[in-house]
Amino acid sequence: MQTTDVLVVGAGLAGLRTATRLAERGHDVLLVDRREQLRTAIRTTGIFVRRTLEDFALPEDCLGPPIRRVVLYPPSLRRPVRLDSGHDEFRVADMAALYEASVEGAAAAGVRVALGTRYAGRHDGESLLVGPDGPRAVRARFVVGADGAHSRVARDLGLDRNHHLLSGAEEVFPLARPTTGPPTFHCVVDPCLAPGYLAWVVDDGRHAHVGVAGYPHRFPNGMRAALRELAARAPGLVPDAPAEQVERRGGPIPVGGLLRRIGCAEGLLVGDAAGAVSPLTAGGLDPCLRLSDHAVDVLDAALRHGHAQRVAGAYEGATLRARFRGRLLMRHGLAQVRSRAVAEAAFTVLRTPPGRTAAARVLFGHGSFPDPAPAGLARTGT
Hints:
Elements: E1 2-9, H1 13-24, E2 29-33, E3 47-49, H2 50-55, E4 69-73, E5 81-84, E6 90-92, H3 95-109, E7 112-115, E8 118-123, E9 126-131, E10 134-145, H4 152-157, E11 165-174, E12 184-188, E13 199-203, E14 207-214, H5 223-233, E15 247-254, E16 263-264, E17 267-269, H6 285-305, H7 311-314, H8 318-322, H9 325-336, H10 340-350, H11 353-364, H12 376-380
Helix pairs in contact: 1-3, 1-6
C-alpha cells in the first residue's frame, strides 16, 4: 500500500500547476497520467489571453508572438469586422514544450510523477492505479480530479459532472513561409460550419492553428469534414499545410459554466473536470490556472489543520457560477443560431460602433473568469 498526501489525476495544465504548488508548500504529491509522453494527445489550442500573461509567469520560449488583431467573418466571409487592440491580447503556446517544461518543474519541486499510469477507480478510500508494472493501490488524504471534461474522479467522489459540452478539432502546423501582415486571430461565425460556436485560423507568423468547434450532434459530416470545408471555402484564410508536419488535436469542451459541487472531504476538481471554462468564449487556460491556485490554498489549509470536512464549504462553485449568468445567457443565445441568414443579420449589428464595442469587450476584456475568494480555511487558520 502506497500512501501520499495528495493524488493528482491528470497532467494537463491544471493538474501540473496544482501538483507543483502543493509540493512547493511541503506536501507529498503523486501525479499520474495515462499518457506515456505529455506531448501526445494535446486537447487545448494553447491560446493564452492578456490577463493570464499578465498574472502568471509562463516560459517565454514556449510562447508565440503577441497577437493584437481579431477579424470576425460572417458565413459569406464578406465584409468582416476587424478589431485591433492597443495591447498584446493573445499568445499561442507550444503546448508540448510547455507541458514538458512544467513536468520538469513539478519533479524539481518534489512531485512524484508517474506517466503511463491510469486511474482505474476508487473504493473504500483507496485509489487503484494501473501502470507499466501492473495495478497498485494508493491511499491519499485527498484526490484531485484534473482528468478532463469526462472526469472519472468526479464520478467516484460523487461530485457534479459536465453535461453541456462542445467538441473541437484543430490542426496545427508550421507556416511554409512567414506571413507579411501582423499576427491575426481569424474567427468565422457560421452555424452550419461550426454549430453553436465558431471556426478559427490563428496565424501568428510562425504557425497556423486551424480549428472548428460546436455541438457534436449538429455537425452534418463530422468535424474533420468541417475543417476541409473551411479550407475549401476560405483558401486565402487557411494556409497550405505540409501533411507530414500537421499535428491534430481534438476533444470535448465543457461550456455549462463552473459546476456547483466541486469539492468534498475526499478531494476536489480542477480544470475542465470542474467546468472551469468560459461558457461563451470556451477559453479554459486562464480559469484552470486561477481555480488551481484556489484549490492549492484550500488543500494546503486542510492538510495543515486536519479539517477535511471543511473542504466542500471552502471550495464550492455555486458562488463563482453566479458570476457567469451573463455569459451563460449569451451561450444559450449563440446555441440558438442555426441559420446562416441569422448569423449574417447579426453582423449588421456587429458593424455598428456599439456592436464593435461589445465584441471588443468580450474578446479583449478581463472578465473571462473571476478570481476566487481566499479559501476560508486558509483565511481563518482554523
